[in-house]
Amino acid sequence: MRIVVFGAGGVGGYFGARLAAAGNEVGFVARGRHLEAIRAGGLRVRSALGDIHLPAPAASDDPGALRRADVVVFAVKLWDTEAAAAARPLLTDGGIVIPFQNGVESVERIGAATGADGVLGGAAYIAATISEPGTITHTGTMARLRFGALRPGQVGAAKAFHAACVAAKIDAELVADVERVLWEKFAFLAPMSGLTSAARCSIGPIRADPEMRDTLRLAIEETWSLGRARGVALPDDFVARQLAFADGLPAQMKSSMLHDLEAGRRLEAPWLSGAVARMSRALGLSAPVNATLYAALKPFCEGRG
What we know:
- The protein contains 11 helices and 10 strands.
- By secondary structure, it is of the alpha/beta class.
- It folds into 2 domains: 2-176, NAD(P)-binding Rossmann-like Domain (Rossmann fold, 3-Layer(aba) Sandwich); 180-300, Orthogonal Bundle (N-(1-d-carboxylethyl)-l-norvaline Dehydrogenase, domain 2).
- The strands form 2 sheets. The chain has a 5-stranded parallel sheet. Strands 3, 4, 8, 9 and 10 form a 5-stranded mixed sheet that branches.
- The protein is globular and about 50 Å long.
Protein backbone atom coordinates (compact mmCIF):
# COMPACT_ATOMS: atom_id res chain seq x y z
CA MET A 1 0.00 0.00 0.00
CA ARG A 2 1.20 3.52 -0.78
CA ILE A 3 1.00 5.75 2.28
CA VAL A 4 2.06 9.30 3.03
CA VAL A 5 2.48 10.33 6.66
CA PHE A 6 1.73 14.02 6.87
CA GLY A 7 3.53 14.98 10.07
CA ALA A 8 6.33 12.64 11.16
CA GLY A 9 6.18 13.39 14.89
CA GLY A 10 5.35 11.00 17.71
CA VAL A 11 2.16 9.60 16.18
CA GLY A 12 2.96 9.77 12.47
CA GLY A 13 6.61 8.81 12.87
CA TYR A 14 5.87 5.78 15.03
CA PHE A 15 3.01 4.26 13.04
CA GLY A 16 4.51 5.27 9.70
CA ALA A 17 7.75 3.50 10.59
CA ARG A 18 5.84 0.35 11.57
CA LEU A 19 3.96 0.38 8.26
CA ALA A 20 7.17 0.98 6.29
CA ALA A 21 9.03 -1.81 8.11
CA ALA A 22 6.22 -4.18 7.07
CA GLY A 23 6.87 -3.47 3.40
CA ASN A 24 4.47 -0.65 2.58
CA GLU A 25 5.69 2.27 0.49
CA VAL A 26 5.64 5.11 3.01
CA GLY A 27 6.66 8.73 2.49
CA PHE A 28 6.99 11.26 5.31
CA VAL A 29 6.21 14.97 5.33
CA ALA A 30 8.52 16.51 7.92
CA ARG A 31 10.44 19.74 8.37
CA GLY A 32 13.29 21.52 10.07
CA ARG A 33 15.97 19.68 12.02
CA HIS A 34 13.83 16.54 12.18
CA LEU A 35 13.72 16.34 8.38
CA GLU A 36 17.46 17.04 8.13
CA ALA A 37 18.21 14.19 10.54
CA ILE A 38 15.92 11.78 8.68
CA ARG A 39 17.66 12.60 5.41
CA ALA A 40 21.10 12.22 6.98
CA GLY A 41 20.63 9.09 9.09
CA GLY A 42 17.14 7.75 8.55
CA LEU A 43 14.18 7.55 10.92
CA ARG A 44 14.57 5.67 14.20
CA VAL A 45 11.93 4.45 16.62
CA ARG A 46 12.81 3.42 20.16
CA SER A 47 10.07 1.31 21.68
CA ALA A 48 9.49 -1.52 24.14
CA LEU A 49 7.53 -3.13 21.30
CA GLY A 50 10.65 -3.25 19.16
CA ASP A 51 13.07 -0.69 17.77
CA ILE A 52 12.99 0.30 14.11
CA HIS A 53 15.49 1.99 11.83
CA LEU A 54 14.44 3.10 8.35
CA PRO A 55 17.81 3.93 6.74
CA ALA A 56 16.58 6.13 3.90
CA PRO A 57 12.82 6.77 3.91
CA ALA A 58 11.28 9.13 1.37
CA ALA A 59 10.92 12.40 3.26
CA SER A 60 10.35 16.01 2.27
CA ASP A 61 8.92 19.28 3.52
CA ASP A 62 7.23 19.60 0.11
CA PRO A 63 4.28 17.19 -0.17
CA GLY A 64 4.43 17.57 -3.94
CA ALA A 65 7.83 15.87 -3.95
CA LEU A 66 6.31 12.60 -2.69
CA ARG A 67 4.43 9.97 -4.68
CA ARG A 68 0.66 9.94 -4.69
CA ALA A 69 -0.84 7.72 -2.02
CA ASP A 70 -3.79 5.47 -1.30
CA VAL A 71 -3.85 6.73 2.30
CA VAL A 72 -2.65 9.97 3.84
CA VAL A 73 -2.10 9.53 7.58
CA PHE A 74 -2.64 13.08 8.77
CA ALA A 75 -0.85 13.62 12.09
CA VAL A 76 0.20 17.26 12.30
CA LYS A 77 -0.49 19.36 15.38
CA LEU A 78 -3.93 20.92 15.51
CA TRP A 79 -2.74 24.44 14.72
CA ASP A 80 -1.39 23.14 11.40
CA THR A 81 -4.62 21.47 10.29
CA GLU A 82 -5.23 23.91 7.46
CA ALA A 83 -2.07 22.48 5.87
CA ALA A 84 -4.40 19.66 4.82
CA ALA A 85 -4.95 21.58 1.59
CA ALA A 86 -1.46 20.44 0.55
CA ALA A 87 -2.49 16.81 1.09
CA ARG A 88 -5.16 16.80 -1.59
CA PRO A 89 -2.79 16.45 -4.59
CA LEU A 90 -1.18 13.46 -2.84
CA LEU A 91 -4.29 11.32 -3.10
CA THR A 92 -4.83 8.72 -5.79
CA ASP A 93 -8.30 8.30 -7.24
CA GLY A 94 -10.25 6.88 -4.32
CA GLY A 95 -7.47 7.80 -1.88
CA ILE A 96 -8.40 8.72 1.67
CA VAL A 97 -7.17 10.95 4.47
CA ILE A 98 -7.33 9.65 8.03
CA PRO A 99 -6.64 12.29 10.68
CA PHE A 100 -5.00 10.87 13.78
CA GLN A 101 -5.04 14.15 15.66
CA ASN A 102 -6.27 15.20 19.04
CA GLY A 103 -9.62 16.97 19.34
CA VAL A 104 -12.96 16.35 17.65
CA GLU A 105 -13.02 19.02 14.93
CA SER A 106 -10.42 17.66 12.50
CA VAL A 107 -12.77 15.84 10.12
CA GLU A 108 -14.69 19.03 9.37
CA ARG A 109 -11.56 21.18 9.12
CA ILE A 110 -9.70 18.75 6.85
CA GLY A 111 -12.78 18.05 4.76
CA ALA A 112 -13.06 21.74 3.97
CA ALA A 113 -9.59 21.55 2.40
CA THR A 114 -9.54 18.12 0.74
CA GLY A 115 -13.20 17.29 0.20
CA ALA A 116 -15.37 15.61 2.79
CA ASP A 117 -15.92 12.39 0.81
CA GLY A 118 -12.31 11.30 1.31
CA VAL A 119 -11.92 12.00 5.03
CA LEU A 120 -12.39 9.23 7.60
CA GLY A 121 -12.35 9.50 11.37
CA GLY A 122 -9.42 8.21 13.40
CA ALA A 123 -7.93 8.19 16.87
CA ALA A 124 -4.42 7.24 17.99
CA TYR A 125 -3.52 6.07 21.48
CA ILE A 126 0.19 6.33 22.15
CA ALA A 127 2.71 8.25 24.24
CA ALA A 128 5.47 9.06 21.77
CA THR A 129 7.49 12.13 20.95
CA ILE A 130 10.47 13.33 18.93
CA SER A 131 13.14 12.80 21.58
CA GLU A 132 15.83 14.15 19.25
CA PRO A 133 15.78 15.00 15.54
CA GLY A 134 15.32 11.83 13.54
CA THR A 135 14.28 9.74 16.57
CA ILE A 136 10.83 8.86 17.93
CA THR A 137 10.73 7.55 21.51
CA HIS A 138 7.69 5.53 22.57
CA THR A 139 6.84 5.47 26.30
CA GLY A 140 5.11 2.35 27.64
CA THR A 141 3.51 -0.27 25.39
CA MET A 142 0.21 1.35 24.42
CA ALA A 143 0.20 1.93 20.65
CA ARG A 144 -3.26 1.64 19.14
CA LEU A 145 -5.19 3.00 16.17
CA ARG A 146 -8.99 3.11 15.87
CA PHE A 147 -10.61 4.42 12.73
CA GLY A 148 -13.65 4.02 10.54
CA ALA A 149 -15.68 5.21 7.59
CA LEU A 150 -18.03 8.16 7.87
CA ARG A 151 -19.70 7.47 4.51
CA PRO A 152 -20.61 4.18 2.81
CA GLY A 153 -18.21 4.79 -0.08
CA GLN A 154 -15.23 4.83 2.31
CA VAL A 155 -15.67 1.32 3.69
CA GLY A 156 -13.46 -0.49 1.16
CA ALA A 157 -10.54 1.91 1.65
CA ALA A 158 -10.90 1.68 5.42
CA LYS A 159 -10.77 -2.13 5.29
CA ALA A 160 -7.67 -2.04 3.09
CA PHE A 161 -5.80 0.24 5.48
CA HIS A 162 -6.88 -1.89 8.42
CA ALA A 163 -5.45 -4.96 6.69
CA ALA A 164 -2.14 -3.12 6.17
CA CYS A 165 -2.03 -2.20 9.87
CA VAL A 166 -2.74 -5.76 10.97
CA ALA A 167 -0.01 -7.06 8.67
CA ALA A 168 2.38 -4.54 10.29
CA LYS A 169 1.41 -5.93 13.73
CA ILE A 170 -0.19 -2.64 14.73
CA ASP A 171 -3.02 -2.86 17.25
CA ALA A 172 -5.70 -1.46 14.95
CA GLU A 173 -9.49 -1.55 15.17
CA LEU A 174 -11.97 -0.78 12.42
CA VAL A 175 -14.98 0.75 14.18
CA ALA A 176 -18.56 1.37 13.12
CA ASP A 177 -19.30 4.48 15.21
CA VAL A 178 -16.13 6.50 14.75
CA GLU A 179 -17.70 9.73 16.06
CA ARG A 180 -18.20 8.05 19.41
CA VAL A 181 -14.57 6.87 19.33
CA LEU A 182 -13.35 10.42 18.72
CA TRP A 183 -15.34 11.73 21.66
CA GLU A 184 -14.26 8.89 23.94
CA LYS A 185 -10.66 9.90 23.35
CA PHE A 186 -11.34 13.63 23.51
CA ALA A 187 -13.30 13.41 26.76
CA PHE A 188 -10.24 11.97 28.48
CA LEU A 189 -7.41 13.60 26.56
CA ALA A 190 -8.58 17.19 26.83
CA PRO A 191 -8.77 17.06 30.65
CA MET A 192 -5.60 14.97 31.02
CA SER A 193 -3.52 17.15 28.70
CA GLY A 194 -4.85 20.33 30.29
CA LEU A 195 -4.15 19.19 33.84
CA THR A 196 -0.74 17.61 33.26
CA SER A 197 0.33 20.78 31.44
CA ALA A 198 -1.09 23.22 33.98
CA ALA A 199 0.43 21.22 36.86
CA ARG A 200 3.70 20.57 34.97
CA CYS A 201 3.74 16.92 36.01
CA SER A 202 3.05 13.43 34.71
CA ILE A 203 -0.13 11.46 35.36
CA GLY A 204 1.31 9.62 38.40
CA PRO A 205 1.27 12.51 40.91
CA ILE A 206 -2.08 13.72 39.60
CA ARG A 207 -3.92 10.45 40.15
CA ALA A 208 -2.26 9.94 43.57
CA ASP A 209 -3.21 13.36 44.98
CA PRO A 210 -6.87 13.59 46.09
CA GLU A 211 -7.34 17.21 45.02
CA MET A 212 -5.68 16.85 41.64
CA ARG A 213 -7.49 13.56 41.02
CA ASP A 214 -10.80 15.26 41.75
CA THR A 215 -9.92 18.06 39.36
CA LEU A 216 -9.28 15.46 36.65
CA ARG A 217 -12.62 13.79 37.43
CA LEU A 218 -14.53 17.08 37.21
CA ALA A 219 -12.87 18.01 33.92
CA ILE A 220 -13.80 14.61 32.45
CA GLU A 221 -17.38 15.02 33.70
CA GLU A 222 -17.65 18.38 31.93
CA THR A 223 -16.43 16.91 28.66
CA TRP A 224 -18.69 13.86 29.01
CA SER A 225 -21.69 16.17 29.59
CA LEU A 226 -20.77 18.16 26.47
CA GLY A 227 -20.56 15.04 24.35
CA ARG A 228 -23.90 13.76 25.60
CA ALA A 229 -25.48 17.17 24.90
CA ARG A 230 -24.19 16.93 21.33
CA GLY A 231 -25.85 13.55 20.89
CA VAL A 232 -22.77 11.34 21.25
CA ALA A 233 -23.56 7.96 22.86
CA LEU A 234 -21.04 8.15 25.71
CA PRO A 235 -21.96 5.55 28.37
CA ASP A 236 -23.21 6.40 31.86
CA ASP A 237 -20.13 4.90 33.52
CA PHE A 238 -17.70 6.72 31.22
CA VAL A 239 -16.09 8.93 33.88
CA ALA A 240 -15.39 6.04 36.26
CA ARG A 241 -13.92 4.00 33.40
CA GLN A 242 -11.61 6.83 32.38
CA LEU A 243 -10.29 7.24 35.92
CA ALA A 244 -9.62 3.50 36.00
CA PHE A 245 -7.81 3.85 32.67
CA ALA A 246 -5.69 6.66 34.13
CA ASP A 247 -4.75 4.39 37.02
CA GLY A 248 -3.33 1.88 34.56
CA LEU A 249 -1.08 4.31 32.69
CA PRO A 250 2.67 4.46 33.38
CA ALA A 251 3.19 6.92 36.25
CA GLN A 252 5.76 8.85 34.21
CA MET A 253 3.44 9.36 31.24
CA LYS A 254 3.10 12.99 30.14
CA SER A 255 0.69 14.39 27.61
CA SER A 256 2.15 15.48 24.29
CA MET A 257 1.03 18.99 25.18
CA LEU A 258 3.20 18.96 28.30
CA HIS A 259 6.15 17.87 26.16
CA ASP A 260 5.41 20.82 23.87
CA LEU A 261 5.13 23.19 26.83
CA GLU A 262 8.46 22.05 28.28
CA ALA A 263 10.12 22.49 24.88
CA GLY A 264 8.68 25.96 24.37
CA ARG A 265 6.57 24.90 21.38
CA ARG A 266 3.02 25.93 20.53
CA LEU A 267 0.20 24.24 22.42
CA GLU A 268 -2.99 22.53 21.26
CA ALA A 269 -4.94 23.90 24.23
CA PRO A 270 -7.34 26.02 22.11
CA TRP A 271 -8.67 22.81 20.50
CA LEU A 272 -8.65 20.74 23.73
CA SER A 273 -9.57 22.34 27.08
CA GLY A 274 -10.32 25.54 25.18
CA ALA A 275 -12.65 23.69 22.82
CA VAL A 276 -14.53 22.11 25.74
CA ALA A 277 -15.10 25.58 27.18
CA ARG A 278 -16.01 27.08 23.78
CA MET A 279 -18.44 24.33 22.72
CA SER A 280 -20.00 24.21 26.19
CA ARG A 281 -20.70 27.95 26.11
CA ALA A 282 -22.35 27.55 22.71
CA LEU A 283 -24.80 25.03 24.23
CA GLY A 284 -25.39 26.99 27.43
CA LEU A 285 -23.40 24.51 29.53
CA SER A 286 -20.89 25.28 32.26
CA ALA A 287 -17.33 23.96 32.04
CA PRO A 288 -15.41 25.94 34.68
CA VAL A 289 -12.59 23.40 35.20
CA ASN A 290 -11.70 23.12 31.52
CA ALA A 291 -12.07 26.89 31.11
CA THR A 292 -9.67 27.44 34.01
CA LEU A 293 -7.12 24.96 32.66
CA TYR A 294 -7.26 26.72 29.30
CA ALA A 295 -6.88 30.14 30.92
CA ALA A 296 -3.82 28.93 32.85
CA LEU A 297 -2.20 27.69 29.63
CA LYS A 298 -3.25 30.51 27.33
CA PRO A 299 -0.12 32.66 27.91
CA PHE A 300 1.98 29.73 26.60
CA CYS A 301 -0.14 28.73 23.61
CA GLU A 302 2.08 30.45 21.05
CA GLY A 303 5.27 28.97 22.51
CA ARG A 304 8.49 30.78 23.33
CA GLY A 305 9.18 31.54 19.69
